[in-house]
Write a structure and sequence with these properties.
Blueprint lengths: L4 H5 L5 H17 L1 H7 L12 H10 L5 H11 L1
Helix pairs in contact: 2-3
């Protein structure tokens, strides 16, 4: 019996699950960035009041993210 394309790719580690997982993570990041980062061992001060640029700058300044890591992330997102 032949598998249809959806069943063939909709298994663990498949492109469909990876895309769905990536979208879920993007939504979690948007809804609560401080909690999302904390779960990944990236910590911001409890009273942090900044936007995305401020978060990145804080992570760079505190050594939690290197410039190389930022550059790789930035090129991945383009």
């Amino acid at each position: 019996m032949l598998n249809n394309p959806y069943n063939m790719y909709n298994q663990n580690g498949s492109p469909f699950n990876n895309i769905s997982n990536m979208m879920d993570q993007m939504n979690a990041l948007r809804s609560n960035p401080i909690q999302f980062l904390a779960k990944r061992k990236l910590n911001l001060p409890p009273n942090f009041q900044g936007g995305p640029r401020d978060i990145v700058q804080y992570l760079l300044n505190s050594g939690q993210m290197s410039q190389d890591q930022f550059n790789r992330l930035q090129s991945f997102l383009r």
